[in-house]
Design goal:
Helix content: 25-40%
Structural class: alpha/beta
Largest sheet: 7 strands, mixed
Strand content: 15-25%
Radius of gyration: 18 Å
CATH class of one domain: Alpha Beta
Strand order of the largest sheet: 1-2-4-3-5-7-6
């Protein structure tokens, strides 16, 4: 089939154009320089690293949500979502690979894929940083999880030329909304050597839009990775909590299903970044806010609705988490024995 004559081909052109705009804005300094000199290298990753934290993540999330939705697993939308992400990784100097898989959920077979980019570190020990890129049919999937995708791509770009103590494996997971199928497929396909090299997993799931920034782990798992993230935030003067107000839950833990749970079940420590709201919301829905209860998986999860209701919030939250991630990924971690 000709890419120019298919629905997917037309969408691919729109996605590529959106990606070019985001990278061009970073290169032009549209997000503000974070260094005193404002000098930028010739590569897009250098342009991102010299821009203000969160600017590229925010612009990417907006472009991703608006240009590719819905992104339901095993649809054209999800396919174009991973094309967007693979293109961004390539622009930032990575050689991403697409890991296709077929999994069963109930009576249905799902064909999806993960997009994986690796940044070699000074150690073969691997830290996995993941964000799912699929969505439900309602809304644009802006908070859940275009914001996580934007943060994942900005973090990858920022540390591309930096020293990192560990090898960093950036993964955009497919089919999370179908039961974390992409995360499971990744671990199922990993060699014994790669599985032994993994020291932990950072999950970026709905990282902006809620009232409070939070990092959580699961009940009963080691908390050192979560605690290292809290320490990084504290050193930067960033308010990052562990959601002690969560009704009926232990402080700093989460129960909602997400890609981290696959890694927890395999015995790995995890840290889940999210923007959560506990007070003034209906029940314990993690994505609810006092103004937009039940934000996740709803028609309200759009760029227009969230940006109008919370002007500046998403960009500010992404900026803070971008700083925390950069600090965390370029530092020696205080790991439990």
């Amino acid at each position: 089939m000709s890419a120019l004559t298919t629905r997917g081909g037309r969408l691919a052109i729109a996605v590529a154009a959106a990606l070019v705009v985001v990278i061009g804005l970073a290169a032009a300094g549209a997000f503000g320089a974070c260094g005193s000199s404002g000098r930028k290298g010739g590569r897009p990753s250098a342009a991102v690293s010299s821009s203000a934290h969160g600017g590229v993540a925010h612009a990417t999330a907006v472009a991703f949500a608006r240009s590719v939705h819905p992104r339901v697993a095993d649809t054209w939308g999800e396919i174009k979502g991973r094309e967007f992400i693979a293109g961004a990784f390539q622009q930032y100097g990575y050689f991403p690979r697409t890991q296709e898989f077929i999994a069963r959920t109930g009576r249905r077979r799902v064909h999806s894929a993960n997009v994986i980019a690796v940044k070699e570190g000074e150690s073969p020990a691997q830290l996995v940083i993941g964000a799912h890129y699929d969505s439900v049919a309602a809304g644009e999937g802006y908070s859940d999880n275009a914001t996580g995708v934007g943060l994942l791509l900005e973090a990858a770009a920022r540390i591309k030329g930096r020293r990192t103590p560990y090898t960093l494996v950036f993964i955009a997971f497919g089919a999370e909304e179908q039961g974390s199928l992409g995360a499971q497929a990744y671990l199922d396909a990993a060699s014994g050597l790669d599985r032994r090299a993994i020291i932990g997993m950072i999950d970026l799931d709905a990282v902006a839009g809620g009232d409070d920034l939070s990092v959580m782990s699961r009940v009963g798992e080691p908390t050192w990775l979560r605690d290292d993230a809290l320490g990084a935030a504290h050193s930067l003067g960033i308010d990052l909590g562990t959601s002690p107000r969560a009704p009926g839950r232990a402080a700093g833990t989460m129960q909602a299903p997400s890609d981290d749970l696959v890694f927890v079940d395999a015995g790995y420590p995890t840290a889940v970044f999210s923007a959560v709201s506990w007070e003034g919301s209906r029940g314990t829905h993690m994505a609810a806010t006092s103004e937009l209860p039940g934000l996740w998986h709803s028609p309200d999860d759009t760029v227009a609705r969230i940006e109008k209701t919370f002007p500046g919030r998403v960009r500010r939250q992404l900026g803070n988490l971008s700083r925390v991630l950069e600090e965390l990924l370029t530092s020696e971690l205080e790991r439990e024995p």
